[in-house]
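Q: A reviewer asked whether we had any structural model of the full assembly, not just the individual parts. We don't, so I'm hoping you can provide one. Inputs are below.
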Amino acid sequence: MEPRQAPLKELWSHLRETPRRFKESAFRSGPPVTDRARSEFVFNNLFLHIHPVRVHRWSLRWRTTWGLGVAVTAAFLLTLITGVLLMLYYKPYPDVAYQSIKDIHYVVPTGRFIRNIHRWAANLMVVTVFLHMARVFYTGAYRYPREFNWLVGLGLLVLTLGLSFTGYLLPWDQLAYWAITIGANIAQSPRELTDALGITPYFDPGGWMKTLLLGGPEVGDESLIRFYVLHVAVLPLALVVLMGVHFWRIRKDGGLARPEDADALLGPPRDLYPVFTDAPTKTYHLAAIVRGRSPAVNRGPENTIPSMPHLFYAECAVFMLTVFLTVLAAIFWNAPLKEIANPAVPENPAKAPWYFLGVQELVSHSAFMGGAGIPLIVIVGLGLIPFLDRETEGTGRWFGGPGGQRLVLVSAVFGLLSVIAIEAFAIQFGWLRQWFPDIPQLIITFVNPGTLLVVVYAIFSLGIVHRYRSARAGAVALFTCFLCGFVVLTIIGVHFRGPNWGFYWSPADWPKH
Amino acid sequence: MKDDHTTVPSRLAPEPVPRRDFLGLSALGAFVSALFLAFLGIIRLPRVVVSASPSRKFRVKLPESLQPGEPFVPPGRNVVLFRDSEGVYAISLVCTHLGCIVKPSPNGFECPCHGSRFAPDGHVIGGPAPKPLPWLAVSLEGNEVWVDGNVIVQPGTKARG
Ligand code: HEM
Ligand code: FES
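A: Here is a predicted structure for the entire assembly that you could use as a starting point for your response.
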């Protein structure tokens, strides 16, 4: 037995060793230089272990994902951080709210910059979430076994839009007030149907939803608090939880979707150090016996590479690019702030944020179908895709499946032409009400440019299903059509609509008033 | 090419669980109904019972010079008043489409939000609005007019002095 050191000396040497011991207790594994240490680096860390220890080389090609999912995550983290900062000064009470945003914008040091970042990161999040969905769709990555994660993704899409919408009211300016008035009345729009049927006094889901959302019959202080609570607590929490599920499922579903013959397509790996120089690690064994879908089941590990560093470098690159773009936007463009909310005089034109202007265009044909019916049909349709398309051809490839790129092109042309034709007709000649002033509302609710467009798209896609004998081909046609419809309607709403929602070739032609 | 996983029984099926025992079923039932009742209890709080919005009943004096057919909008109210030889009447300015405030114009009313247009008596002549602008109850008291925004009356109902 070693002779014990003098107690004070021992204390001193422990103190000297503290930094090293602290590092060991925190990191537990050595520097990530061997394969084994790289694995431990990942699964010994709470924050990293949501990643797999090894990823397939296919997943790391830029062309597979364009980094879009990670970009959404990065944009969300930016809004989270800047959002907490904004909460320090923001006060959710009518008029006071407006003044506090003004303070943030003009008085608080860096306030305007932080507010700009929050605004543009939120916009970027909406853009990237749509692009991410499109990439998952076009690479056929929603198929078995990823159906459920596609649905989780849809939930994330809805939550993202919900966050944008609730955030939009908080500045309490004219833009905010009228956008929310319109939004809340869209929630009430089932009344268009119940009124037409004469059952509103007995069954009024529309009115119920509106008062639940607003906390009263009109947009007022109760509404502001409700939107605030949704925006800073309920929706972000739900989003974080769902994001956790989303990421976890990606691992459990065996990593990202890739073609059956991905290994052959990629060829032998270049300049990789040999795999399994060390004894295989615990996790690896586990992964191999767990039933189903881990990346290595039934396959050699040849085409997987350690997440540390390859995946993490790629993720960091996307993070940095996202931060760079957002900060650039925040330097050059200020988040808008109009006059203080005035419940007596709407903005003219009163426009929602750009990503809702497609819906606003639909709503200008029918409140119920445009604001509730068609969006619901689209969401349900999107959710059904992975259950209707159970083919395997083309999974993991861009525009995979029968028809390929050509079908996408044909559908895009068809989608663009029909939306432009229908809108141009309605803008030029008006609609049923102008021709038959006494027509029942119920007919307009169901027969209007928006519903017509949906029917045209649906018929086209069913034709494609028939022609190619493939649900995937039909899904590609429908998705492409809706994407084109969304883009064109949004452009019309943003650029071609002026005062009284009239059509103008350019904002320069708007009448002065 | 069809995948083959559809031919094997569902992953959720393989081990049959004896679920038909009475106690198990009643426990499940109790659990579900407890959750449901808790949900009903929770939803009572955000449901609005008393709303603190401003009174919609008010009193105004029409300007002496008001011509027949000339709109008069009392400050801060979403109601327009007219006076003609048959009496005084009030029409709501809240668009029946999605709640924007319509603007009186030479041939009726126009909505800035999605372009609904209404005739001078409030009925829809264009745009997406599903219903006419409602007429509101008015009564005269001396040279003042009472308007009750909560009471909708037949179009054409005018109050005589
Ligand atoms: C807040 C929103 C979202 C976040 C943060 C997010 C994040 C991610 C990330 C980081 C990935 C890894 C691959 C990649 O970067 O593309 C991914 C994959 C995936 N996402 Fe999302 N996503 C979101 C919304 C959606 C939406 C709207 C959908 C579709 C409706 C969706 C469906 C999927 C599917 C099916 C995968 C697996 C793809 C594959 O295996 O190749 N996600 N997501
Ligand atoms: S709110 Fe008046 S037209 Fe939409």
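A: Points you may want to mention in the reply: The pocket of protoporphyrin IX containing FE (ligand 1) is lined by residues A 65, 68-70, 72-73, 129, 132-133, 136, 141-142, 146, 149-150, 153-154, 156-157, 160, 243, 246, 250, 256-257 (CB under 6 Å). The beta strands of chain B are 57-61, 79-84, 87-92, 103-105, 108-110, 117-118, 124-126, 135-141, 144-153.
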